[in-house]
Amino acid sequence: MHPYVPLDRTPAGAASQAIRTLILAASSLGRDERPRLYRHVHPHGHATAKLARSFAAALGYAGAPALDEIELGAHLHDFGKYLIAEAVLLKPGPLDDAERAAVSLHPVYGARLLAGLPAVTEAVRQVVLYHHEHWDGGGYPEGLAGRRIPLAARIVSVADVYTSLRARRAYKTTLGRREAASEMESMAGRELDPDITPDFLKFVGAYESRAGRRGGY
């Protein structure tokens, strides 16, 4: 494993009970108000959060609040999608330029919706806002590059990409572990952190073996 600088710990931290309460509230809101999107957003957030927290722990983040913040940010990273039209997010074919522009706003929407809530520390907000930034500066919403992207967001990004590649969706092919790993290797140094990605791919093989997972995030 490569050496990493630990995440800054906020004085207040993110209490586990507050995190559970916020996740339940967000889940209930999505399920009740946007049930079709909920079936897309919530399971993906849950899978990404479990994977991101486990990977962060493997990198040396042994306790709260850092792990709690990564888990919460990962769970809610797509929360802003609830403000985007279902016809766009659940479109079975490729998006046009206007639709892609609309989808690219979801990190900003999510960060604004969650700002000021008790369990949402700055680290959590940064995960939500920056999980689509790319190592080479070609991501969104701010075009951050390299280590200007907060480490927590880079950790969640690899978990997010992997669970997306492995997910069962009506509009895409589900990739096996090796196919997903090959795809992510090609993304390292462009979209993904080139130091974290190889460590993640080593980690996720053991993670899935322990969990007995054969696909379908």
Q: What structural class do the secondary elements suggest?
A: mainly alpha
Return the CATH class: Mainly Alpha
Report the CATH topology name. Hypothetical protein af1432
Regions with pLDDT < 50 over 5+ consecutive residues? 1-15
User: In the residues, how many domains can be counted?
Assistant: 1
Number of helices: 10
Mean pLDDT: 84
The rough form would be described as: globular
Q: List how many beta strands DSSP finds.
A: 0
End-to-end gap: 25 Å
Query: What is Rg?
Result: 16 Å
Architecture (CATH level 2) name:
Orthogonal Bundle
What percent strand?
Answer: under 5%
3D structure, described in words:
The chain has one domain (16-211): Hypothetical protein af1432 (Orthogonal Bundle), CATH 1.10.3210.10. The protein contains 10 helices and no strands. With 217 residues, the protein is mainly α. Mean pLDDT is 84; it is low at 1-15.
Descriptive labels:
single chain, 217 residues, mainly alpha, Hypothetical protein af1432, 10 helices, 0% strand, globular, disordered N terminus
Describe the SSE topology.
Layout: H1 16-33, H2 35-58, H3 66-75, H4 86-89, H5 97-103, H6 106-114, H7 122-130, H8 151-166, H9 177-187, H10 196-211
